[in-house]
Amino acid sequence: GSTWISTISRYLSSEMTGLPPICTGVRQKHRTHTDVVPPEAKARFVADPIIPLRARTTKEFQEGVEKATHSGDWKPVHDFYASTFGSFLELSAAFKKEANAPSNTTDDSGINTRLLNAVYDVLLHTPPDTQKCVLKGAINSLLREWKSFKIKGTSLLQNPQYGSTATYVIFAHLLRQMASLAETDHHFLMHWFKKLSQKRFKLLVERLQLFISTRLYPGRPEDLPPMAKCSWWIPCATKVLSLLNAANSIVTPPIAPFTDFYNLTLDHTDFMDDYHTWQMHGNSSRFTFCQFPFILSTVVKKAIMQRDSEQQMISMARQTLVDKVSRRQRVDMSLLFLNIKVRRLQLVSDSLDELTRKRADLKKKLKVTFVGEAGLDMGGLTKEWFLLLIRRIFHTDYGMFTYTKDSQSYWFSSWKGDDCSEFRLVGALMGLAVYNSITLDIRFPPAVYKKLLTPPIGPCDPDTPVGMAALTLEDLLQIMPDIAHGLAELLSYEGNVEEDFYSTFQVFQEELGVIKPYSLKPGGEKIPVTNLNRKEYVHLYVDFLLNKSIYKQFAAFYHGFHSVCDSNALMLLRPEEVEILVCGSPSLDMGALQRGAQYENYSKTDPTIRAFWDVVLSFPLDLQKRLLHFTTGSDRVPVGGMPDLNFKISRLDVSTDWLPISHTCFNQLCLPPYKSKKDLRHKLTIAISNAEGFGLE
Which superkingdom heads the taxonomic lineage of this protein's source (predicted)? Predict the structure, then answer.
């Protein structure tokens, strides 16, 4: 079987050398789209003939298979496969719902999917000769191009035989033809893909991911052509995968989580070289994975952000040194850092003053000093500064943010006043956290991260609007659930909206105890809300609440964040991924922390260590978070999970009357050899419950 496949694969390769090269550019601002191969580069299509209708039903096919299974006579089934896959004409005839109905709607591909699924579900269980004839038919189909290739391609793409490396040459050419289709055809494919069942959709994604991974790192290189002869394989597969990703993104809820599109094999490639190539060539004809950021995991994107940040830090420090040397001034090594000195009692005002005064140094490595305290910042004080500052700013009494209990998230206050410098401070804090690889416990709704990437790169023109994201009623539901429910009822109301609601395109908002009117459109106070215009009203009201009413506050926040994080790497991120980079994951797996723990002068079988883990695993979530904060300076889990913390427990040879001590800059817990589990629990609970300014080094 494999020899036969190799023979026809070589034949296919020689016959298809005239295929147009794939164009690999993807417009970054429209990530769900794929570019078009120029018309002049494409071969002329053969006109589609009139297709007869083969009226075999799914039930008839399944009955035929069942009969063959019992009798052992597979000839009728073989004949069906041989005739069906013998040519594009027969393929279309077998699976098309109606013989000559046009397949030019995004709602319906015209394919009898029930029969197609049944045929493919059985294929791998048929005799080898039957499977060979299907592959031979696929080759014959690929040797000619038809105007309606998108329909046939959709049918061929779901063939389960392409899960084997022996068929990868055929699969690659199929992907090449699909990737080379015009953008209008890609639009149809995207909408047809979204109608696949979740199981079949995920199978397609997995098959393409396996194809890419195997081509990158083949288990048996001799089973595949040399990379030099098939460098187009991965670009073609990635482009087809981007169509599935686009289909997934236009469905609510998505068919698959966006993480299913991560190819974890790429975590082990030289992704920085890929990133630099993308930086140099942009979205030109030179393929890079960064053109298709959905395929890169958050781990890769975080690493790119970190290394990009490190390079900017080094560049900033080098420039400072050069300036000092050129002026023949004494070089103070502290100039290489962003040194923040604050008093605990004036934490917010001191931090704002320091960051404002040292705005030019924001891209240097951060070091924090608490005035009057002897602590040397090796990372722990920086973490504590972030934690305390965020807690104080987000306290509802401070007035900058409002808290929603239902979604357990914060939103920007619309009545803070004209001075938005503190909002810029919060944005800068988030940027510094990402820049310095520190996770924060900031509970913003997803809408904030959508706005933060609108646009993903801060504009040069200060008058360019920022943060004006296209938000929906679903976004409002997480921020102002009562208003969102009211608007949803308005949309679904079956009576006379104008007479029963008596509303206009004028809304009211309270600011410092004063009710102020706002028109959603010119003359809004005179325009009634009716059954015909209520969708427009809801759209404008949501835009007002989430964009316009807080524009000054959010613009300051946006510019604060982008004053630190102005890397092109932000263009690679989804809003959800920005949230993970800023906040880490709130879900704790203390078992994973235990498995990855390291020990110094202890072993994992030591009685003290066993007692420690028994106590920790029995802690409620609140105390587990306190322990994590006590030992690492943050109660959130970084992108790489618990193993990335490099958590270490060291023996502290002192009296057992001592409390545990932590070195947050090293994620290290120093634990005396307590004599009982009860004593350990008591001392540990006291330590982690009184951590701020005590026991943290």
Answer: Eukaryota
Determine the pLDDT at residue 37: 40
Give the pLDDT confidence score for residue 52 in this predicted structure. Answer: 52
**pTM assigned to the model:** 0.81
Q: Which two tokens stand for residue 541?
A: 């009201």
Q: For residue 670, give the DSSP letter.
A: E
Q: Could you tell me which residues come within 8 angstroms of residue 543 by beta carbon, excluding any fewer than 6 positions away?
A: 471
Phi, psi torsion values for 292, nearest 5 degrees = -125, 70
**What is the Cα 505 distance to its own chain's centre?**
37
In this structure, the dihedral spanned by the alpha carbons of residues 415, 419, 423 and 427, taken in order and rounded to 10 degrees, is 150
Among 338, 390, 348, 347, residue whose Cα is nearest residue 370: 347
Confidence (pLDDT) at 3: 53
The pLDDT value given to residue 55: 58
List, in order of start, the domains of the chain with CATH numbers.
Answer: 2-296 (no CATH), 312-469+563-576 (3.90.1750.10), 473-546 (3.30.2160.10), 590-689 (3.30.2410.10)
3-state SS record for 257-297: CHHHHCCHHHHHCCHHHHHHHHHHHCCCCCCCHHHCHHHCC
Strand ranges, E, within 436-590: 506-511, 514-519
Instruction: Give percent helix, percent strand, percent coil of the chain, each to the nearest 5.
Output: 55, 10, 35
Separation CA 319–CA 332 (nearest Å): 14
Select which of 133, 230, 565, 665 is catalytic. Answer: 665
Beta strands in 442-535 (DSSP E): 506-511, 514-519
CA dihedral sign of residues 261, 262, 265, 269: positive
pLDDT reading at 605 higher than 60: yes
pLDDT digits (tens, 9 = 90+) for 304-357: 988 887 787 778 778 878 887 888 777 666 677 889 999 999 999 999 999 999
- 28-77 residue pLDDT tens: 433 434 443 444 334 444 444 554 555 578 898 999 999 999 999 999 99
What the block records as the tokens of 442 is 């900031």
**H helices then E strands: how many in the chain?**
27, 10
